[in-house]
Amino acid sequence: MTAPTSQRPLALVTGASSGIGYELAKQFAQHGYDLVIAAEDPGINRAAQDLEPMGAAVRAVQVDLATYDGVERLYAEATAEGRQPDAVAINAGIGVGGDFARDTDLARELRLIELNVTSTVHLAKKASRDMVARGEGRILITASIAAMMPAPYETVYAASKAFDLSFAEGLRGELRDTGVTVTALMPGPTDTPFFDKADLTDTRLGQADKDDPAEVAEQGFEALMAGQEKVVAGSMKTKVQAAAARVMPDSVTARMHGKMAEPGSGDE
C-alpha cells in the first residue's frame, strides 16, 4: 500500500474495513482524497488494496480503537508524514443485542462504550484541535436513528449513539466560527456485519430489509461536504421512521423497538 504523501486532501476514516466505513472511504477516494483508514480486523488491508485503484494513496492501520493507546497510535500514523487530516469520519462502532439485566455480557457492553463513546471523544479532541489551529476542517460522526429513541434489547448501543449525536451537535456549536464543521450521520438498519456481530440475527430487526451502505455513505459524504448539521441517511423508509420517532412518545417508540429487537422475535 502507498503512504499518503501527495498534495491531495487527506481523509481519516475509522471502521473502514467494511460496511458504511468502507463506503465512506470510497466516497473520499472518488472525490480526490488520500486516505488513512483504520479497523481492528485484517480486512482493513484488503480494503486498502481495493481503494488504491481509485487514485488515492492509502495507509491502512489495523488498530483497536477501544483502547487509549489505539487512538493515539492511529492519529500518530495519520499525521506521520507531516500532514493533518482535512476530514475525519469517526465511524467505528459496535452493538450488543439482548436483555441487559438477564443475558448480556458486561465486558462487551463496557467495550462498546469504550469504542462508541470514549474513542469518539478522544479522536475528535485530537482532530478538532489541529483543525481549529488551521482554521478549517470537517468532522463526520456516525450516530444512528437509534439515538432518537429508547431501544430495548439494544439499550447500551442506543445510549451510546444518543451520546454521539449530542456530542456532535454540541461540538458543532462550539466550532461555529472556526472554519471547522461537524456533521452527524444517522443511518437506520443498514446491510453490514453489525447485526451478526451484535447477536441480533434472530430478531425481526436483524431479519428485516436493510439499507444499502453505499447509499448511506454517499448521503453522509454529501452532507459533510455541504457542512450540514446532521443527516438521516438511507432509504425513504428510514427517513420516515426517523421523522416518526421525533413526534412519538418515548414509551411508544420503546415498545415498537422492543418488539423488533427482542431475542427470538425473528422466529415468530
How does this model look, in words?
The protein has about 270 residues and is of the alpha/beta class. It has a single domain (about 10-265), classed as Rossmann fold (3-Layer(aba) Sandwich). The protein has helices at about 20-30, 45-50, 70-80, 105-135, 155-175, 195, 205, 215-225, 235-245, 250-260; strands at about 10-15, 35-40, 60, 85-90, 135-140, 180-185, 230-235. It has a seven-stranded parallel β-sheet with strand order 3-2-1-4-5-6-7, sandwiched between helices. Helix 5 links the parallel strand 5 and strand 6. Helix 3 (about 70-80) runs parallel beside helix 4 (about 105-135). The model has no long low-confidence stretch (mean pLDDT about 95).
Based on DSSP secondary structure assignment, what is the total number of beta strands? Answer: 7
Distance between the termini: 48 Å
For the biggest sheet, the summary is: 7 strands, parallel
Oligomer: single chain
CATH class: Alpha Beta
Spatial order of strands in the largest sheet: 3-2-1-4-5-6-7
What is the CATH topology classification name?
Rossmann fold
- Number of structural units classed as domains: 1
Shape: globular
> CATH superfamily membership, which one?
NAD(P)-binding Rossmann-like Domain
- Beta-sheet strand percentage? 5-15%
Mean pLDDT: 95
Can you give the helix content as a percent range?
A: 40-55%
Give the radius of gyration: 18 Å
CATH architecture: 3-Layer(aba) Sandwich
N to C succession of SSEs: EHEHEHEHEHEHHHEHH
What structural class do the secondary elements suggest? alpha/beta
Indicate the low-confidence ranges by residue numbers: none
Please tally the helical runs, counting DSSP H or I stretches of 4 or more residues: 10
